[in-house]
Every structure is written in structure tokens, then in C-alpha cells.
Amino acid sequence: QLQLVESGGGLVQPGGSLRLSCAASGFSLDSHVIGWFRQAPGKEREAVSCISSRDDFTDYADSVKGRFTISRDNAVNTVYLQMKSLKPEDTGVYYCAAAGDSWVAGCAIEIPLYEYARWGQGTQVTVSS
To answer: What is the pLDDT of residue 109?
Structure first.
């Protein structure tokens, strides 16, 4: 069964840190562009970061540059999102997704959501004092 499972979310105070994990089963993450997304209540889902399959090129939304870092550990088939200096506006459900086999270009934050074929169930991140 092809599956993505996110973990690591929780409640954190402003300025704090969290590391999210995206573990895959049934396929190899290193063969796909992997993206992290978030959705706040009443807002559209937005891309946060992505990592390419071939050269581990990364891209970030302007709102998280310098604070978030995406990385991949092929040995455990997992992609991570390290989040630092968290702000209340970072609150939302965070999802990871794998681009479909038809997406042969590298990672770019502008990749349309419909190009991502497999999605996890999401993990809640709440930044509040």
C-alpha cells in the first residue's frame, strides 16, 4: 500500500521549534519531488517547502525562508521539516505529498497542487502562548 504518514506536530510557544516527519511506505521518497504544505482554518492549502529527487535541491515559501529546513534521509525513507522561530501564523495542518511520476522537473514552490499525487493525512501544528 502506497502511503505517506506525517508526525511531529503539536503545541509550541512562539519562538519555539518542531520537527515534522514524513515517512513513506510502498514507494521510495527519493524518486519523487516531495513537498510540505499547510492549511490554516478558512484558508487555502499553501506550499511551504519542497525537495527535489535527483539533487536534493530545495525551495521555500518566502514566509518561512530562513526559519524552516527540509531534508531527506533515504535510509529510513523519510523527509523532514525542521521549523524554528515559529510564529502564530505558522499554525495549521501540515501535509507532505509526493509529486506524481509524470512530474519530471525538479522542485519548485510554484508546483501546482494537482501535480502531487500522494498525500499524507496531515499533522496539526499550533503556535500559541
So the answer is: 93
